[in-house]
Design goal:
- The chain is an alpha+beta fold.
- The protein has 5 helices and 12 strands.
- The protein has a 12-stranded antiparallel β-sheet with strand order 3-2-1-12-11-10-9-8-7-6-5-4.
- Strand 10 and strand 11 form a beta hairpin.
Length: 262
């Protein structure tokens, strides 16, 4: 009888310890979810901005070999007007004006520019919104594993069919986030600055691998913000990297931002 009571007490002790650990983990996750600057928390539901590429920077290599052609291209490209809209569903949509009276060669080049801008901005906002509009952590009442590893935490959970592993400091700042599915693997190394309203995303390095060499992507992104209606809004992006082995570098400016609050 004493042996059975001792065994029961031991099992009860283990169960109590597991419950306490689970509660502690959920408290840490709660704190992590509250540690980041969020436009949604600041009351923003949607916004819209004019987007202006730095054509001089984009065509600097062309200018070195053919200055006259670069000047002519910039004169035409400066007539383009891009607008990005960001909805309550955390999705971006880009629109642009059309330039009339262009040669077929220029129309083809413009179509490539339109497609490139759409792809580049939608890719950026998919990552940016994870930190700035949604939340880079799972729900507190979801299933997850939180493990201390030295001076870091490792958080492991499933998001649909995606396997997510997040590494963060004991101060709850994420240093690495990996997402793996049957179709791709991505790794993001974000950087933040501390504000009175939480950790603000200032940039990130990212690698995306779908298993196809032509789609292999590396990004280095730096972000500047401006105050608009009391919140931190995009002001400038500096994007560098490579896609399928081809390097690119572009700077985007955001002006005339209009914010809708709840």
């Amino acid at each position: 009888m004493k042996r059975k009571l001792a065994l029961a007490s031991f099992i009860l002790l283990l169960a109590t310890a597991a419950t306490a650990q689970s509660a502690a983990d959920r408290q840490t996750l709660t704190q992590a979810r509250q540690a980041y600057y969020s436009l949604r928390t600041q009351g923003v539901s949607t916004f819209q901005c004019d987007v202006t590429p730095d054509w001089n920077s984009l065509l600097q290599d062309e200018r070195q070999t053919n200055p006259a052609a670069a000047d002519a291209a910039i004169k035409t490209l400066s007539q383009l007007h891009f607008v990005v809209s960001f909805g309550a569903d955390a999705k971006s949509h880009m629109t642009h004006n059309e330039l009339t009276g262009q040669t077929q060669e220029m129309k083809t080049a413009l179509a490539q520019i339109y497609g490139g801008m759409e792809q580049m901005t939608s890719g950026f906002f998919d990552t940016w919104s994870l930190f700035m509009f949604n939340n880079p952590f799972p729900a507190v009442d979801s299933q997850f594993q939180l493990q201390p590893v030295g001076a870091l935490y490792t958080l492991h959970y499933l998001e649909g069919t995606s396997d997510v592993v997040t590494t963060m400091s004991k101060e709850l700042a994420i240093s690495e986030l990996t997402v793996t599915t049957s179709e791709f693997h991505s790794t993001i190394h974000p950087s933040f600055t501390k504000t009175a309203n939480g950790l603000l995303l200032k940039g990130y390095d990212a690698d995306y691998d779908s298993g196809k060499p032509a789609e292999l992507t590396h990004l280095n992104v730096l972000i500047d913000y401006q105050p608009v209606n009391g919140v931190e809004m995009l002001q400038k992006l500096d994007l560098k990297g490579s896609y399928g082995g081809s390097k690119f570098s572009v700077q985007l400016g955001f002006q005339g931002c209009q914010i809708t609050k709840k």
